[in-house]
Amino acid sequence: MVSALPVVFCFLSAVLAHMQLNSPPTFGAANNPYRTAPADTELTFPYGCCGKEIPFPCRGYLNLLGTPQGASVATWTAGSVQNFSLTGLGNHYGGSCQVSFSVDNGTTWQVATSFEGDCPHRNGGVDPALQTFNFTVPADIRTGSAVFAWTWFNREQEFNMNCAAVTITPPASSVANASVPYNRLPGPLIADTGNGCETPLTTAEVQYPNPGPDIVPGDGVYPLALPTPATMCGY
After folding, report:
1. Do the beta carbons of residue 58 and residue 147 sit within 8 Å?
2. pTM for the whole thing?
3. 10-residue block means of pLDDT along the chain (235 residues)?
């Protein structure tokens, strides 16, 4: 069952400076070719913002799976290098991001890559061409329908999540075995949602306590710091 995360307060000015997944097109986005309902104009809003309860995960859009509006928007080969891009109204001068997959309609998630710092690219503005990130699809992920998720923490203790329906095809015969089996990869960090786990405020970007084996370092402009307290943040 999709649940709503607790509401926390944020300033309207913060809402006007956020990012969303551009490619693959997220559920409800203006550029999603299968969207028939009005475009969601709040995809850049952080969870818990502005008196709104945003369903978790994927902003409540997993109920579109199996319907025309939830059709796959990308086909990726297991073990291949792919990319995602971001757009929006303002990039908060960076942050930390993770990309994850679910092969059970959002019940469980496994992290593919953790970007620790400079995600979004702090000097990339909001141009998707300058906000493109490479990652590797897990080599042993189950083929067929999957959900791709992008999660982001900025330095204002805000969390956002966008998702897209994708299709996974079998790996090439030359793909190396995964260093960590897909079902043993960690889940994405969930924090700054009223769940008791908080990321650094202002002075640092997130260091993930369980980043998985594929970590992309940032540019070092800000130091990295773990979320706290450890007892509430899964480490």
Report:
1. yes
2. 0.92
3. 38 57 98 97 89 90 98 97 96 96 98 98 95 97 98 96 98 82 96 95 96 97 97 87
